[in-house]
C-alpha cells in the first residue's frame, strides 16, 4: 500500500462506484486506521506510511435535525400499529429522547440493559460504555413493547430475530444495515405525509437529540458523553448550530 495505491483506489471509488467525497473519506480512514495499528505493532515501518504524503479530504455537510414542532408532529402521527412503520417511528422517536442512540444500538438493545430507569450498554460502533436515564416519553415507548414471556436476553424492540447477534461481525452488520434502509423508507413516507421538507434518516434522531439537549441547557460535556463521542470537539458542531439558531432568533428585534 503506497500513495499510488491510495490515489488509484480513490479514483476507482469516484469513477466506478460514484461515491461522494465523505463516503470515500470513510473508506480511506479505515485503511489509515489499519496501517496505524500495524505501525503501533511494529509490523509496518512508520516512514513508509503513505498517509504521511496523502491527505484525506472532506466536505462540510449541514447536519439535519428536527424542530420541537416537527418532532411532536412525528410523535403524534397516526399509524396502524400492525404496520412496521409504527415500530420504525417509535424507535426513531425513542432515539431522539434516549441520548441519540444509533440504529445499531437500538436494534441490539436488550431487556438486560434496562433497569427500569436507565439504559446501560456498550455501543456497537465505538465500544463506549454509556448509561442513559430515560425521560418519560422514552420510558413509555419501552413499556409499549413489553410483553409476557420475554427474557432478559430478548431484544426490547422486535427489529432483529432472536439470536441474530450471536455471531457478531459482517453478518450482523449487514442485517442491521438492511433494517436501517427499511426504517429510513418509513421515515421518508412519514415526513412527506406531514409536509416536513427535510431529508430525514434515522441518524437525524442523533442530531435532533444533541441540538435539543444543548438548547435546553444541558452541558456540552454531558451531551458528548451521552452521544459516546471520544472528544468534546466532535460535539462542538452542535453547539455552533444552536448558537446560530439563537442568533437568527435575535433578528426579531430588527423587524
Question: How would the blueprint of this fold be written?
Answer:
Blueprint: H1 3-15, H2 21-40, H3 68-76, H4 84-97, H5 103-107, E1 118-122, E2 129-133, H6 136-144, H7 170-194, H8 204-215, H9 220-227, H10 232-249
Antiparallel strand pairs: 1-2
Helix pairs in contact: 4-6, 4-7, 4-8, 8-9, 8-10, 9-10
Structure description:
- The chain is mainly alpha-helical and 255 residues long.
- The chain has 2 domains: 3-52, no CATH class; 68-249, Intergrase catalytic core (hpI Integrase, Chain A).
- The chain contains 10 helices and 2 strands; from the N terminus they run H-H-H-H-H-E-E-H-H-H-H-H.
- The chain has a two-stranded antiparallel ribbon with strand order 1-2.
- The radius of gyration is 21 Å and the shape is globular.
- The relative contact order is 0.11.
Explain briefly what this protein structure is.
The chain is mostly helical and 255 residues long.
Query: Structural class of the secondary structure composition?
Result: mainly alpha
- Give the overall silhouette: globular
Strand order of the largest sheet: 1-2
The rounded distance between the terminal residues' Cα atoms is: 59 Å
Characterize the main sheet. 2 strands, antiparallel
At the fourth level of CATH, the homologous superfamily of the largest domain is Intergrase catalytic core
Strand content: under 5%
Helix content: 40-55%
Count of alpha/pi helices: 10
Order of helices and strands: HHHHHEEHHHHH
Instruction: From the alpha carbons, calculate the radius of gyration and give it in angstroms.
Output: 21 Å
Q: Which architecture of the largest domain does the CATH hierarchy give at level 2?
A: Orthogonal Bundle
In total, the number of strands is 2
Number of domains: 2
- Let me know the average pLDDT: 90
The CATH class assignment of the largest domain is Mainly Alpha
- Low-pLDDT residue intervals, each spanning 5 or more residues: none
Reported by name, the CATH topology of the largest domain is hpI Integrase, Chain A
Amino acid at each position: 500500500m503506497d500513495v499510488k495505491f491510495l490515489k488509484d483506489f480513490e479514483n476507482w471509488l469516484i469513477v466506478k462506484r460514484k461515491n461522494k467525497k465523505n463516503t470515500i473519506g470513510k473508506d480511506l480512514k479505515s485503511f489509515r486506521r489499519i496501517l496505524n495499528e500495524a505501525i503501533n505493532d511494529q509490523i509496518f515501518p512508520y516512514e513508509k506510511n503513505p498517509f504521511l504524503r496523502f491527505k484525506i479530504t472532506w466536505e462540510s455537510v449541514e447536519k439535519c435535525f428536527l424542530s420541537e414542532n416537527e418532532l411532536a408532529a412525528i410523535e403524534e402521527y397516526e399509524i396502524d400499529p400492525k404496520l412496521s412503520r409504527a415500530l420504525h417511528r417509535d424507535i426513531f422517536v425513542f432515539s431522539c429522547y434516549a441520548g441519540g442512540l444509533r440504529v445499531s444500538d437500538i436494534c441490539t438493545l436488550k431487556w438486560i440493559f434496562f433497569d427500569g430507569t436507565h439504559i446501560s450498554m456498550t455501543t456497537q460502533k465505538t465500544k463506549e460504555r454509556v448509561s442513559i436515564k430515560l425521560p418519560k416519553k422514552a420510558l413509555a415507548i419501552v413499556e409499549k413493547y413489553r410483553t409476557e414471556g420475554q427474557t432478559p436476553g430478548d431484544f426490547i424492540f422486535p427489529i432483529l430475530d432472536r439470536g441474530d447477534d450471536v455471531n457478531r461481525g459482517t453478518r450482523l452488520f449487514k442485517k442491521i444495515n438492511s433494517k436501517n434502509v427499511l426504517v429510513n423508507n418509513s421515515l421518508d413516507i412519514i415526513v412527506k405525509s406531514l409536509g416536513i421538507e427535510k431529508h430525514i434518516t434515522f441518524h437525524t434522531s442523533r442530531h435532533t437529540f444533541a441540538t435539543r439537549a444543548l438548547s435546553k441547557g444541558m452541558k456540552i460535556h454531558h451531551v458528548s458523553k451521552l452521544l459516546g463521542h471520544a472528544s468534546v470537539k466532535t460535539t462542538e458542531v452542535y453547539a455552533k448550530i444552536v448558537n446560530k439558531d439563537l442568533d437568527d432568533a435575535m433578528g426579531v428585534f430588527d423587524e
